[in-house]
Amino acid sequence: MSRSRISVDDDLARARSGDDAAFTRIVEPLRRELHAHCYRMLGSTHDAEDALQDALVRAWRAVGQFEGRSSFRSWLYTVATRTCLDLVELRGKRALPVDLGPASDHAVVGDRPLTDTAWLGPYPDAQYEQREAVELAFVAALQHLPGNQRAALLLFEVLGFSAAEIAGVMDTSVASVNSALQRARRIVAEKVPSVSQAQTVRELGDLRLRQIVDDFTGALERGDADALVALLTADVTWSMPPLPHWYHGLAAVTDFATSVPLSSCGAWRRLPTTANGQPALGSYLWDPDSETHLPFAIDVLTLRADRICEITTFIGPEHHAAFGLPEFVH
User: Fold this and answer.
1) Are 239 and 260 in contact (CB under 8 A)?
2) Which tens digit of pLDDT belongs to each residue from 51-105?
3) 329 in the Ramachandran plot: left (φ > 0), alpha (ψ -120 to 50) or beta?
4) Residues 76, 54: Cα–Cα separation, whole Å
């Protein structure tokens, strides 16, 4: 049950007087949505966590100056957005392999990670009403926007702020906000499919979606190229940040799959999860030294109707903890 308006107002008064426990009680119900906002701004779960912690410290230090001209939630979003804009200025945008160069026609065996690139990362499942706003294509598109346009679009389209409120957040004019929104919408519209993953998943239904994920898992674990190809669209793409090479089309993807994950990597296990509001899998690779399967990557599947049109494999065991996945699988 949600807390009453009286108790929230009482805690706000206590927080203004220096009661950190009261401040925590007000903030805690908003933490998850604020974290999602920071992820959309920054494209990294780790950066989002850093930004949220910094924003909450800033908010705690300034809460005594909160005058109640807006809701406390709106004020927190203002603090979080400004914190994220500082980080965007410092760290720049995050990329996927498709942003760096053309697709490879044939499998690149022994591909090495690019360590000097800031890579987009996956996001653990969001609340239902937030899923479309963290879908991979949308967050990737946001990374092509300057920080001010990114913030304006998110505050207006996702969070429902008015242009005047956004102008206050960003210390600019309403005309500048409207101009930023116009440019941002144009760029995002070019990069985001008209049919969202949320809509696709709803139309498929739970049973069909589960079957697609199970079939994908089985094909990879058995090393069955024909079964894998049967699940893919003709224009499928497969990318694996932080590896720079990526593949487009059935021929190139099949060549990569048969040359690398289906034959030369070893034995796989995969556990179903969700990432960016999309079906995903935690991938585990057999480790002979520990005699178990250890975390390797998060595979995020993008669907078109009942086929997989994009596989994004976020390589790195560090991703698993945020998804609540186990440290190993037998």
Assistant:
1) no
2) 999 999 999 999 988 877 888 999 999 999 999 999 999 888 899 999 999 999 9
3) beta
4) 12
